[in-house]
Amino acid sequence: MNNQAEYESLIAGLKFAKGLGARRLDVYSDSKLMVNQLTGSYQTKDEVLKRYFQLAKTLLQHFAQTSLFHIPREMNSLADELAKEENDNALDILFLAFEDPQIFDIDSNPGSWMDDIRHYLLTGELPNDRNKARRLRVKAARYIISQGQLFRRCYSLPLAKCIRKENSKIVLEQIHSGDCGTHAVGRNLSLQVLRQGYYWLNLQKDAKEFSQKCPQCQFYSSILKQLAAQLHPITSSWPFSMWGLNFLRPFSKSRKNLRHVLLATDYFSKWVEAKPMAQPTGTSVRNFIWTQLVCRFGVPLSLICDNGTAFTS
Ligand SMILES: [Zn+2]
């Protein structure tokens, strides 16, 4: 019974991988019997298992290259947890997505933008009009048919699955405002769609129009991110006249309990003066300014700080 369950899970996985269009497959299972039967090391005598074996063999032939590995049970804990689930909703949903081609079916319902290209790629027939024929030939060069589905070649991107115009709204909705949607707009949105591997005619135009109609984008996109006041550039005309002072974050304790570093940077030359200290206090800052700055570089014109308590006290 247990071996049947192992075979069933393998067959489910193979169907899933086939639906995804996988070409090369590595199968890991903790069932030594099943792996050895499929690799030919063991014979299959049980009548029921024979039927499973045949089905699994047939499915494995759909892939260009397959490898089966036996792994110890403790290394297969993730798969075990999935198998122990009382209801297998997750798998059901996955299979439904493939068995019910509600969104992604591009098979030739009449009146789709892909029909001409598909027809030409499948049969090589061109329209009688010379100009139309030339245009179609040029256009069709950007498309290929793989496993009965039309894909568009993209520059530096994977092949994009061509979908019907009426299904494009679902894709846009999911990518713009779905669970992982970032409310990307315009050209950004169309590029995200391409990166996710979908294409249809007038993708850019549709993406732009869609993002213009999103209610959340209407509410929040007009919030100004500009500062309330103008920015003022800080310039220094000669060396050591203007210093920027700041404490670096507390570091791990050194031998003399010195954790903080006071840093002074000259705005003109970017010269740096630094001193480690135990506590960021007003006294230590005053001593630093006197010994490290005034006594060595002269009285500065201005000191710039972040108004921390050590600087203001
Ligand atoms: Zn939006």
List the helices and strands and how they pair.
Blueprint: H1 2-20, E1 24-29, H2 32-39, H3 47-60, E2 65-70, H4 77-84, H5 89-99, H6 115-123, H7 130-140, E3 143-146, E4 149-154, E5 157-162, H8 168-177, H9 186-195, E6 198-199, H10 203-212, H11 215-220, E7 242-248, E8 260-266, E9 272-277, H12 282-297, E10 302-304, H13 309-312
Parallel strand pairs: 1-2, 5-6, 7-10
Antiparallel strand pairs: 3-4, 4-5, 7-8, 8-9
Please describe what this structure looks like:
- The chain has 313 residues and is of the alpha/beta class.
- Helices cover 43% and strands 17% of the residues.
- The protein has 13 helices and ten strands.
- The longest helix has 19 residues, at 2-20.
- The radius of gyration is 34 Å and the shape is flat.
- The structure holds zinc ion.
- Zinc ion binds next to helix 8 and helix 11.
- GO terms for molecular function: nucleic acid binding; RNA-DNA hybrid ribonuclease activity.
- It holds the Pfam family Integrase_H2C2.
- InterPro entries: Integrase_cat-core, Integrase_H2C2, RNaseH-like_sf, RNaseH_domain, RNaseH_sf.
Structure keywords:
single chain; 313 residues; alpha/beta; Nucleotidyltransferase, domain 5; Endonuclease III, domain 1; 3 domains; 4-stranded mixed sheet; 13 helices; binds zinc ion
How do you describe this structure in short?
It contains 13 helices and ten strands.
Calculate the mean pLDDT score and round it: 83
What's the level 1 CATH class of the largest domain?
Mainly Alpha
Tell me what the CATH architecture of the largest domain is: Orthogonal Bundle
Low-confidence stretches: 86-108
InterPro entries: Integrase_cat-core, Integrase_H2C2, RNaseH-like_sf, RNaseH_domain, RNaseH_sf
Pfam families: Integrase_H2C2, RVT_3
GO molecular function: nucleic acid binding; RNA-DNA hybrid ribonuclease activity
